[in-house]
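Priority: medium. Attachment 1 of 2:
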Protein backbone atom coordinates (compact mmCIF):
# COMPACT_ATOMS: atom_id res chain seq x y z
CA UNK A 1 0.00 0.00 0.00
CA UNK A 2 1.35 3.40 -0.98
CA UNK A 3 1.73 6.32 1.41
CA UNK A 4 1.93 4.30 4.57
CA UNK A 5 1.64 6.18 7.82
CA UNK A 6 4.60 5.48 10.11
CA UNK A 7 3.24 3.63 13.13
CA UNK A 8 4.82 3.30 16.56
CA UNK A 9 3.36 1.26 19.41
CA UNK A 10 3.86 1.27 23.15
CA UNK A 11 3.06 -1.79 25.24
CA UNK A 12 -0.42 -1.89 26.68
CA UNK A 13 -0.25 -1.62 30.44
CA UNK A 14 -1.76 -4.07 32.90
CA UNK A 15 -4.86 -2.55 34.36
CA UNK A 16 -4.05 -3.80 37.84
CA UNK A 17 -1.85 -0.96 39.02
CA UNK A 18 -1.43 2.77 38.98
CA UNK A 19 0.67 4.29 36.19
CA UNK A 20 4.31 4.95 37.07
CA UNK A 21 7.54 6.21 35.55
CA UNK A 22 8.17 3.06 33.48
CA UNK A 23 4.89 3.57 31.63
CA UNK A 24 5.45 7.30 31.30
CA UNK A 25 8.83 6.72 29.70
CA UNK A 26 7.69 4.59 26.75
CA UNK A 27 4.80 6.87 25.96
CA UNK A 28 7.09 9.85 26.21
CA UNK A 29 9.37 8.43 23.52
CA UNK A 30 6.41 7.75 21.21
CA UNK A 31 4.76 11.08 21.92
CA UNK A 32 7.95 13.10 21.46
CA UNK A 33 8.64 11.28 18.19
CA UNK A 34 5.24 12.47 17.08
CA UNK A 35 5.65 16.02 18.37
CA UNK A 36 9.03 16.41 16.68
CA UNK A 37 7.72 14.99 13.38
CA UNK A 38 4.62 17.16 13.58
CA UNK A 39 6.82 20.24 13.29
CA UNK A 40 7.43 19.25 9.68
CA UNK A 41 3.92 17.93 9.14
CA UNK A 42 5.35 14.44 8.74
CA UNK A 43 2.69 11.75 9.14
CA UNK A 44 2.83 9.74 12.37
CA UNK A 45 0.58 7.49 14.38
CA UNK A 46 1.13 5.95 17.78
CA UNK A 47 -0.97 3.63 19.85
CA UNK A 48 -1.03 2.86 23.54
CA UNK A 49 -3.57 1.43 25.91
CA UNK A 50 -4.42 -0.96 28.70
CA UNK A 51 -4.14 -4.73 28.94
CA UNK A 52 -7.27 -5.59 30.83
CA UNK A 53 -7.75 -9.33 30.87
CA UNK A 54 -6.06 -12.13 32.77
CA UNK A 55 -5.85 -13.51 36.24
CA UNK A 56 -3.83 -10.68 37.73
CA UNK A 57 -6.42 -8.04 36.84
CA UNK A 58 -9.32 -10.31 37.77
CA UNK A 59 -7.83 -11.09 41.19
CA UNK A 60 -7.02 -7.44 41.89
CA UNK A 61 -10.59 -6.39 41.05
CA UNK A 62 -12.14 -9.15 43.15
CA UNK A 63 -9.81 -8.26 46.01
CA UNK A 64 -11.20 -4.71 45.87
CA UNK A 65 -14.77 -5.93 45.74
CA UNK A 66 -15.52 -4.54 42.27
CA UNK A 67 -16.17 -6.15 38.91
CA UNK A 68 -13.16 -6.42 36.59
CA UNK A 69 -14.97 -4.18 34.12
CA UNK A 70 -15.59 -1.37 36.62
CA UNK A 71 -12.08 -1.76 37.90
CA UNK A 72 -10.60 -1.50 34.40
CA UNK A 73 -12.76 1.52 33.50
CA UNK A 74 -11.26 3.30 36.44
CA UNK A 75 -7.64 2.32 35.76
CA UNK A 76 -7.92 3.07 32.04
CA UNK A 77 -9.07 6.58 32.91
CA UNK A 78 -6.23 6.96 35.40
CA UNK A 79 -3.68 6.13 32.73
CA UNK A 80 -5.26 8.58 30.32
CA UNK A 81 -5.29 11.35 32.91
CA UNK A 82 -1.70 10.56 33.87
CA UNK A 83 -0.48 10.82 30.28
CA UNK A 84 -2.50 13.98 29.66
CA UNK A 85 -0.92 15.54 32.72
CA UNK A 86 2.41 15.19 30.90
CA UNK A 87 0.95 16.68 27.73
CA UNK A 88 0.48 13.44 25.83
CA UNK A 89 -2.44 11.92 23.95
CA UNK A 90 -1.98 8.82 21.80
CA UNK A 91 -3.70 8.54 18.43
CA UNK A 92 -5.34 5.36 19.56
CA UNK A 93 -6.08 4.21 23.09
CA UNK A 94 -6.59 0.47 23.07
CA UNK A 95 -8.79 -1.26 25.60
CA UNK A 96 -8.60 -5.01 25.25
CA UNK A 97 -12.09 -5.42 26.72
CA UNK A 98 -13.54 -3.51 23.75
CA UNK A 99 -15.65 -5.25 21.14
CA UNK A 100 -13.31 -4.25 18.31
CA UNK A 101 -10.31 -5.76 20.03
CA UNK A 102 -12.21 -8.92 20.91
CA UNK A 103 -13.23 -9.42 17.27
CA UNK A 104 -9.71 -8.81 16.03
CA UNK A 105 -8.22 -11.26 18.54
CA UNK A 106 -10.76 -13.94 17.64
CA UNK A 107 -10.19 -13.42 13.95
CA UNK A 108 -6.44 -13.73 14.44
CA UNK A 109 -6.93 -16.94 16.44
CA UNK A 110 -9.16 -18.45 13.74
CA UNK A 111 -6.54 -17.75 11.07
CA UNK A 112 -3.85 -19.47 13.13
CA UNK A 113 -6.22 -22.36 13.70
CA UNK A 114 -7.12 -22.62 10.02
CA UNK A 115 -3.43 -22.55 9.15
CA UNK A 116 -2.89 -25.57 11.41
CA UNK A 117 -0.88 -23.95 14.19
CA UNK A 118 -3.23 -24.60 17.14
CA UNK A 119 -4.00 -27.89 18.87
CA UNK A 120 -5.56 -28.98 22.13
CA UNK A 121 -3.57 -30.57 24.94
CA UNK A 122 -2.91 -30.33 28.67
CA UNK A 123 -0.58 -28.00 30.48
CA UNK A 124 1.29 -29.26 33.49
CA UNK A 125 3.71 -26.82 34.96
CA UNK A 126 4.18 -23.57 36.83
CA UNK A 127 2.47 -20.24 36.29
CA UNK A 128 3.22 -16.82 37.71
CA UNK A 129 0.12 -14.67 37.97
CA UNK A 130 2.17 -11.54 38.58
CA UNK A 131 4.09 -12.09 35.33
CA UNK A 132 1.15 -13.80 33.57
CA UNK A 133 3.78 -16.26 32.36
CA UNK A 134 4.19 -20.04 32.21
CA UNK A 135 7.41 -21.46 33.63
CA UNK A 136 9.02 -24.88 33.35
CA UNK A 137 10.64 -26.41 36.43
CA UNK A 138 14.08 -25.58 35.02
CA UNK A 139 13.18 -21.87 34.76
CA UNK A 140 12.54 -21.49 38.49
CA UNK A 141 15.01 -19.91 40.88
CA UNK A 142 14.64 -21.00 44.51
CA UNK A 143 11.08 -22.10 43.85
CA UNK A 144 10.09 -18.73 42.36
CA UNK A 145 9.85 -17.17 38.92
CA UNK A 146 13.10 -15.52 37.75
CA UNK A 147 11.42 -12.19 38.49
CA UNK A 148 10.99 -13.25 42.11
CA UNK A 149 7.23 -13.67 41.72
CA UNK A 150 5.38 -16.58 43.34
CA UNK A 151 4.38 -19.44 41.07
CA UNK A 152 1.48 -21.86 41.26
CA UNK A 153 1.33 -25.41 39.94
CA UNK A 154 -1.21 -25.90 37.18
CA UNK A 155 -2.65 -28.92 35.43
CA UNK A 156 -5.30 -27.96 32.94
CA UNK A 157 -6.65 -28.60 29.51
CA UNK A 158 -5.62 -25.88 27.07
CA UNK A 159 -4.84 -25.00 23.50
CA UNK A 160 -1.25 -24.88 22.30
CA UNK A 161 0.48 -22.83 19.65
CA UNK A 162 2.98 -24.72 17.51
CA UNK A 163 5.90 -22.44 18.26
CA UNK A 164 8.35 -25.26 17.57
CA UNK A 165 7.45 -25.13 13.88
CA UNK A 166 9.01 -21.66 13.66
CA UNK A 167 12.45 -22.59 14.95
CA UNK A 168 14.17 -22.37 11.56
CA UNK A 169 12.14 -19.43 10.28
CA UNK A 170 12.97 -17.35 13.34
CA UNK A 171 16.65 -18.25 13.24
CA UNK A 172 16.79 -17.34 9.55
CA UNK A 173 14.91 -14.15 10.12
CA UNK A 174 17.34 -12.90 12.77
CA UNK A 175 20.30 -14.04 10.72
CA UNK A 176 19.05 -11.94 7.80
CA UNK A 177 17.97 -8.96 9.90
CA UNK A 178 20.81 -8.24 12.30
CA UNK A 179 19.45 -4.80 13.17
CA UNK A 180 15.88 -5.80 13.87
CA UNK A 181 16.12 -5.27 17.62
CA UNK A 182 17.74 -2.23 19.18
CA UNK A 183 20.03 -2.42 21.10
CA UNK A 184 22.02 -5.26 19.55
CA UNK A 185 22.54 -6.99 22.90
CA UNK A 186 18.78 -7.59 23.09
CA UNK A 187 18.78 -9.17 19.66
CA UNK A 188 21.55 -11.51 20.86
CA UNK A 189 19.42 -12.32 23.89
CA UNK A 190 16.43 -13.21 21.69
CA UNK A 191 18.57 -15.30 19.33
CA UNK A 192 20.12 -17.20 22.24
CA UNK A 193 16.67 -17.95 23.56
CA UNK A 194 15.56 -19.27 20.17
CA UNK A 195 18.72 -21.36 19.75
CA UNK A 196 18.02 -23.19 23.00
CA UNK A 197 15.09 -24.78 21.17
CA UNK A 198 11.50 -23.56 20.98
CA UNK A 199 8.67 -25.52 22.53
CA UNK A 200 4.98 -25.17 21.79
CA UNK A 201 3.29 -23.03 24.39
CA UNK A 202 -0.11 -22.85 26.04
CA UNK A 203 -2.39 -20.13 24.69
CA UNK A 204 -5.66 -20.58 26.56
CA UNK A 205 -7.03 -20.93 30.08
CA UNK A 206 -10.12 -22.89 31.15
CA UNK A 207 -13.00 -20.52 31.69
CA UNK A 208 -13.93 -22.17 34.96
CA UNK A 209 -10.60 -20.97 36.37
CA UNK A 210 -10.53 -17.58 34.65
CA UNK A 211 -13.58 -15.95 33.21
CA UNK A 212 -12.17 -12.45 32.55
CA UNK A 213 -10.88 -12.98 29.04
CA UNK A 214 -11.79 -13.36 25.38
CA UNK A 215 -13.54 -16.58 24.40
CA UNK A 216 -11.65 -18.99 22.20
CA UNK A 217 -13.58 -19.08 18.90
CA UNK A 218 -15.77 -22.18 18.81
CA UNK A 219 -14.95 -23.23 22.38
CA UNK A 220 -16.58 -21.06 25.06
CA UNK A 221 -15.09 -23.23 27.83
CA UNK A 222 -11.75 -21.54 27.20
CA UNK A 223 -10.50 -17.98 27.15
CA UNK A 224 -7.35 -16.84 25.36
CA UNK A 225 -4.12 -16.59 27.32
CA UNK A 226 -3.80 -12.89 28.04
CA UNK A 227 -0.49 -12.35 26.23
CA UNK A 228 -1.81 -13.81 22.99
CA UNK A 229 -4.65 -11.40 22.67
CA UNK A 230 -2.67 -8.52 24.15
CA UNK A 231 -0.13 -8.78 21.34
CA UNK A 232 -2.92 -8.57 18.78
CA UNK A 233 -3.62 -5.06 20.10
CA UNK A 234 -0.91 -3.83 17.75
CA UNK A 235 -3.16 -4.89 14.87
CA UNK A 236 -6.55 -4.11 16.37
CA UNK A 237 -5.33 -0.57 17.15
CA UNK A 238 -5.22 0.16 13.42
CA UNK A 239 -8.41 -1.61 12.43
CA UNK A 240 -7.38 -5.22 11.79
CA UNK A 241 -8.91 -7.38 10.33
CA UNK A 242 -10.22 -4.63 8.06
CA UNK A 243 -7.66 -4.28 5.23
CA UNK A 244 -7.20 -0.62 6.11
CA UNK A 245 -4.81 -1.69 8.87
CA UNK A 246 -2.16 -2.08 6.17
CA UNK A 247 -2.05 1.67 5.81
CA UNK A 248 -0.15 1.61 9.13
CA UNK A 249 1.19 -1.87 9.62
CA UNK A 250 4.02 -2.95 10.03
CA UNK A 251 4.74 -1.01 13.18
CA UNK A 252 7.85 -0.16 15.14
CA UNK A 253 7.39 -1.59 18.64
CA UNK A 254 8.70 0.30 21.64
CA UNK A 255 8.94 -1.99 24.64
CA UNK A 256 10.80 -2.40 27.93
CA UNK A 257 13.54 -5.00 27.98
CA UNK A 258 11.62 -7.34 30.30
CA UNK A 259 8.97 -8.14 27.72
CA UNK A 260 11.41 -8.89 24.92
CA UNK A 261 10.70 -12.63 24.60
CA UNK A 262 6.99 -12.06 24.04
CA UNK A 263 7.68 -9.64 21.22
CA UNK A 264 10.88 -10.94 19.68
CA UNK A 265 9.90 -14.61 19.69
CA UNK A 266 6.21 -15.28 20.34
CA UNK A 267 4.79 -12.32 18.46
CA UNK A 268 6.97 -12.89 15.41
CA UNK A 269 6.04 -16.56 15.26
CA UNK A 270 2.35 -15.75 15.71
CA UNK A 271 2.52 -13.29 12.84
CA UNK A 272 4.36 -15.78 10.68
CA UNK A 273 1.64 -18.31 11.49
CA UNK A 274 -1.09 -15.85 10.55
CA UNK A 275 0.84 -14.84 7.40
CA UNK A 276 0.98 -11.21 8.36
CA UNK A 277 4.02 -8.99 7.69
CA UNK A 278 6.46 -8.80 10.58
CA UNK A 279 6.98 -5.54 12.49
CA UNK A 280 9.59 -3.15 11.16
CA UNK A 281 11.73 -3.16 14.27
CA UNK A 282 11.68 -3.59 18.03
CA UNK A 283 13.24 -0.96 20.25
CA UNK A 284 13.76 -2.27 23.77
CA UNK A 285 14.48 0.38 26.37
CA UNK A 286 15.99 -0.15 29.79
CA UNK A 287 14.51 0.31 33.24
CA UNK A 288 14.22 3.26 35.51
CA UNK A 289 15.83 2.27 38.76
CA UNK A 290 15.64 3.51 42.27
CA UNK A 291 18.61 2.52 44.42
CA UNK A 292 19.63 0.14 41.61
CA UNK A 293 16.27 -1.69 41.72
CA UNK A 294 13.67 -1.71 38.99
CA UNK A 295 10.86 0.62 39.88
CA UNK A 296 7.63 -1.34 40.03
CA UNK A 297 4.45 -1.61 41.97
CA UNK A 298 5.28 -5.11 43.13
CA UNK A 299 8.60 -3.89 44.55
CA UNK A 300 6.72 -1.06 46.24
CA UNK A 301 9.49 1.40 45.32
CA UNK A 302 7.81 3.84 42.95
CA UNK A 303 9.16 7.38 42.80
CA UNK A 304 6.82 10.16 43.76
CA UNK A 305 6.38 11.70 40.32
CA UNK A 306 3.60 13.97 41.54
CA UNK A 307 5.91 15.78 43.92
CA UNK A 308 8.76 15.87 41.42
CA UNK A 309 6.59 17.26 38.65
CA UNK A 310 5.02 19.80 41.00
CA UNK A 311 8.50 21.10 41.87
CA UNK A 312 10.26 20.81 38.52
CA UNK A 313 7.26 20.99 36.19
CA UNK A 314 6.04 18.22 33.95
CA UNK A 315 8.46 19.71 31.41
CA UNK A 316 11.32 19.07 33.83
CA UNK A 317 10.34 15.40 34.17
CA UNK A 318 9.91 15.01 30.41
CA UNK A 319 13.28 16.57 29.77
CA UNK A 320 15.04 14.52 32.45
CA UNK A 321 13.67 11.19 31.22
CA UNK A 322 14.38 11.90 27.58
CA UNK A 323 17.85 13.24 28.14
CA UNK A 324 19.49 11.05 30.74
CA UNK A 325 18.95 7.40 29.76
CA UNK A 326 20.58 6.30 26.56
CA UNK A 327 18.17 4.10 24.64
CA UNK A 328 18.48 0.54 25.87
CA UNK A 329 20.34 1.44 29.07
CA UNK A 330 18.91 1.64 32.58
CA UNK A 331 18.63 5.02 34.24
CA UNK A 332 18.48 6.20 37.83
CA UNK A 333 15.72 8.54 38.87
CA UNK A 334 15.79 10.48 42.13
CA UNK A 335 14.55 13.90 42.99
CA UNK A 336 18.06 15.31 43.42
CA UNK A 337 19.08 14.01 39.98
CA UNK A 338 16.05 15.58 38.33
CA UNK A 339 16.76 18.78 40.19
CA UNK A 340 20.36 19.06 39.05
CA UNK A 341 19.57 18.39 35.37
CA UNK A 342 16.58 20.72 35.38
CA UNK A 343 18.49 23.50 37.12
CA UNK A 344 21.58 23.25 34.95
CA UNK A 345 19.85 22.92 31.60
CA UNK A 346 16.46 24.56 31.94
CA UNK A 347 16.24 26.96 34.86
CA UNK A 348 19.77 28.21 34.24
CA UNK A 349 20.89 27.80 30.63
CA UNK A 350 17.51 27.87 28.87
CA UNK A 351 15.83 30.43 31.12
CA UNK A 352 19.01 32.48 31.33
CA UNK A 353 19.56 32.83 27.67
CA UNK A 354 16.07 34.13 27.24
CA UNK A 355 16.37 36.64 30.09
CA UNK A 356 19.83 37.80 29.12
CA UNK A 357 19.03 38.35 25.46
CA UNK A 358 15.90 40.27 26.26
CA UNK A 359 17.57 42.20 29.05
CA UNK A 360 20.32 43.26 26.65
CA UNK A 361 17.85 44.45 24.07
CA UNK A 362 16.31 46.74 26.59
CA UNK A 363 19.56 47.86 28.25
CA UNK A 364 21.71 48.28 25.16
CA UNK A 365 19.25 49.00 22.38
CA UNK A 366 16.37 50.64 24.24
CA UNK A 367 14.13 47.82 23.05
CA UNK A 368 14.47 48.93 19.48
CA UNK A 369 14.22 46.16 16.88
CA UNK A 370 16.34 46.40 13.76
CA UNK A 371 16.27 44.63 10.44
CA UNK A 372 18.32 41.50 10.05
CA UNK A 373 21.88 42.51 10.94
CA UNK A 374 24.94 40.66 9.59
CA UNK A 375 25.87 37.47 11.35
CA UNK A 376 28.96 37.94 13.55
CA UNK A 377 31.67 35.33 12.92
CA UNK A 378 31.46 33.97 16.43
CA UNK A 379 27.83 32.89 15.85
CA UNK A 380 28.28 31.16 12.48
CA UNK A 381 28.94 27.80 14.04
CA UNK A 382 25.99 28.05 16.41
CA UNK A 383 23.63 28.95 13.59
CA UNK A 384 24.91 25.94 11.63
CA UNK A 385 24.21 23.70 14.62
CA UNK A 386 20.66 25.02 14.77
CA UNK A 387 20.09 24.30 11.10
CA UNK A 388 21.58 20.86 11.64
CA UNK A 389 19.12 20.10 14.45
CA UNK A 390 16.25 21.32 12.30
CA UNK A 391 17.40 18.94 9.55
CA UNK A 392 17.69 16.14 12.09
CA UNK A 393 13.88 16.09 12.42
CA UNK A 394 13.71 13.81 9.35
CA UNK A 395 16.04 11.37 11.02
CA UNK A 396 13.89 11.28 14.16
CA UNK A 397 10.84 10.68 12.02
CA UNK A 398 12.51 7.62 10.49
CA UNK A 399 13.94 6.35 13.76
CA UNK A 400 12.05 7.13 16.98
CA UNK A 401 15.09 6.17 19.08
CA UNK A 402 16.78 9.31 17.72
CA UNK A 403 14.54 11.32 20.04
CA UNK A 404 17.37 10.90 22.57
CA UNK A 405 19.98 12.29 20.22
CA UNK A 406 17.65 15.16 19.41
CA UNK A 407 17.25 16.10 23.06
CA UNK A 408 20.97 15.88 23.69
CA UNK A 409 21.79 17.96 20.64
CA UNK A 410 19.24 20.49 21.84
CA UNK A 411 20.80 20.49 25.28
CA UNK A 412 24.24 21.17 23.77
CA UNK A 413 22.81 24.02 21.72
CA UNK A 414 21.20 25.67 24.71
CA UNK A 415 24.43 25.55 26.69
CA UNK A 416 26.54 26.67 23.78
CA UNK A 417 24.30 29.64 23.18
CA UNK A 418 24.25 30.66 26.82
CA UNK A 419 28.06 30.39 26.97
CA UNK A 420 28.44 32.45 23.80
CA UNK A 421 26.37 35.27 25.23
CA UNK A 422 28.86 35.50 28.07
CA UNK A 423 31.82 35.20 25.73
CA UNK A 424 30.49 37.81 23.32
CA UNK A 425 30.59 40.55 25.97
CA UNK A 426 28.00 42.36 23.90
CA UNK A 427 27.56 44.89 26.70
CA UNK A 428 31.11 46.14 26.19
CA UNK A 429 30.71 46.66 22.46
CA UNK A 430 29.79 49.68 20.40
CA UNK A 431 26.11 50.03 19.66
CA UNK A 432 26.36 48.60 16.12
CA UNK A 433 28.42 45.61 17.13
CA UNK A 434 26.24 45.01 20.16
CA UNK A 435 23.10 45.24 18.03
CA UNK A 436 24.40 42.66 15.56
CA UNK A 437 25.17 40.24 18.37
CA UNK A 438 22.05 40.79 20.40
CA UNK A 439 19.63 40.72 17.54
CA UNK A 440 21.15 37.47 16.29
CA UNK A 441 20.98 36.02 19.78
CA UNK A 442 17.33 36.99 19.91
CA UNK A 443 16.60 35.02 16.76
CA UNK A 444 18.65 32.11 17.96
CA UNK A 445 16.68 32.01 21.21
CA UNK A 446 13.46 32.03 19.21
CA UNK A 447 14.69 29.12 17.09
CA UNK A 448 15.78 27.21 20.16
CA UNK A 449 12.32 27.89 21.60
CA UNK A 450 10.70 26.36 18.52
CA UNK A 451 13.00 23.34 18.44
CA UNK A 452 12.46 22.74 22.16
CA UNK A 453 8.67 22.82 21.91
CA UNK A 454 8.28 19.05 21.42
CA UNK A 455 10.40 18.39 24.52
CA UNK A 456 9.36 21.10 26.97
CA UNK A 457 6.09 22.37 25.50
CA UNK A 458 5.00 24.54 28.40
CA UNK A 459 8.26 26.42 28.84
CA UNK A 460 8.69 26.80 25.08
CA UNK A 461 5.18 28.20 24.80
CA UNK A 462 5.88 30.88 27.41
CA UNK A 463 9.00 31.94 25.53
CA UNK A 464 7.34 31.90 22.11
CA UNK A 465 4.19 33.62 23.33
CA UNK A 466 6.36 36.45 24.55
CA UNK A 467 7.89 36.75 21.09
CA UNK A 468 4.38 36.42 19.61
CA UNK A 469 5.41 33.60 17.32
CA UNK A 470 3.83 30.21 16.78
CA UNK A 471 5.65 27.09 17.98
CA UNK A 472 6.13 25.94 14.39
CA UNK A 473 8.93 25.75 11.86
CA UNK A 474 6.99 28.28 9.76
CA UNK A 475 8.05 30.88 12.28
CA UNK A 476 11.70 29.90 12.14
CA UNK A 477 12.82 32.71 9.88
CA UNK A 478 10.08 35.22 10.53
CA UNK A 479 10.95 38.48 12.26
CA UNK A 480 9.91 39.11 15.84
CA UNK A 481 7.44 41.99 15.94
CA UNK A 482 7.14 42.30 19.70
CA UNK A 483 8.27 45.60 21.24
CA UNK A 484 10.99 44.75 23.74
CA UNK A 485 11.15 47.89 25.91
CA UNK A 486 9.25 48.34 29.17
CA UNK A 487 7.62 44.95 29.00
CA UNK A 488 7.46 42.45 31.75
CA UNK A 489 9.44 39.38 30.83
CA UNK A 490 7.90 36.10 31.88
CA UNK A 491 9.74 33.44 33.84
CA UNK A 492 10.34 30.72 31.28
CA UNK A 493 11.60 28.22 33.80
CA UNK A 494 11.40 28.95 37.53
CA UNK A 495 14.65 28.74 39.50
CA UNK A 496 13.81 28.87 43.16
CA UNK A 497 12.65 25.63 44.63
N1 LIG B 1 0.68 -5.90 29.69
C1 LIG B 1 2.03 -6.22 29.42
C2 LIG B 1 2.46 -5.71 28.06
C3 LIG B 1 1.64 -6.22 26.92
S1 LIG B 1 2.11 -5.51 25.40
C4 LIG B 1 1.33 -6.41 24.27
C5 LIG B 1 2.92 -5.62 30.49
N2 LIG B 1 2.42 -4.59 31.17
S2 LIG B 1 3.17 -3.82 32.37
O1 LIG B 1 2.25 -2.82 32.77
O2 LIG B 1 3.62 -4.74 33.37
O3 LIG B 1 4.49 -3.21 31.80
C6 LIG B 1 4.50 -2.54 30.62
C7 LIG B 1 5.81 -1.88 30.30
O4 LIG B 1 6.29 -1.06 31.36
C8 LIG B 1 6.94 -2.85 29.96
O5 LIG B 1 7.49 -2.44 28.72
C9 LIG B 1 7.94 -2.63 31.04
O6 LIG B 1 9.25 -2.78 30.59
C10 LIG B 1 7.67 -1.19 31.42
N3 LIG B 1 8.19 -0.91 32.74
C11 LIG B 1 7.68 -1.30 33.94
N4 LIG B 1 8.53 -0.87 34.91
C12 LIG B 1 9.58 -0.21 34.34
C13 LIG B 1 10.63 0.58 34.84
N5 LIG B 1 10.90 0.68 36.12
N6 LIG B 1 11.37 1.28 33.94
C14 LIG B 1 11.06 1.30 32.59
N7 LIG B 1 10.08 0.57 32.11
C15 LIG B 1 9.51 -0.41 32.91
O7 LIG B 1 4.04 -6.08 30.64
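Attachment 2 of 2:
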Amino acid sequence: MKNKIPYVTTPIYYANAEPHVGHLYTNLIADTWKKISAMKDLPCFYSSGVDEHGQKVEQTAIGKGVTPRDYCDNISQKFLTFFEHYGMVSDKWVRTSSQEHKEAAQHFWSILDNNGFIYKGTYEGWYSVRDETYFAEADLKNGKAPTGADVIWMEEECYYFRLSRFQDDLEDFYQNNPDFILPRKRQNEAVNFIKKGLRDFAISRPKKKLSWGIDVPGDPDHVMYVWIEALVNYLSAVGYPDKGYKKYWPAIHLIGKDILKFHAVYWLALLMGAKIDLPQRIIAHGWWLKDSQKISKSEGNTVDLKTISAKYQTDGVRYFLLKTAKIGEDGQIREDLVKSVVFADLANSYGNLFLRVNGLIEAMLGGEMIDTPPLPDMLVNLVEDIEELKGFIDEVHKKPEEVFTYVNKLSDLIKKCDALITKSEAWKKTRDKAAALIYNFLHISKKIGILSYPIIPEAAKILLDFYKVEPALDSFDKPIMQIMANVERPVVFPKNR
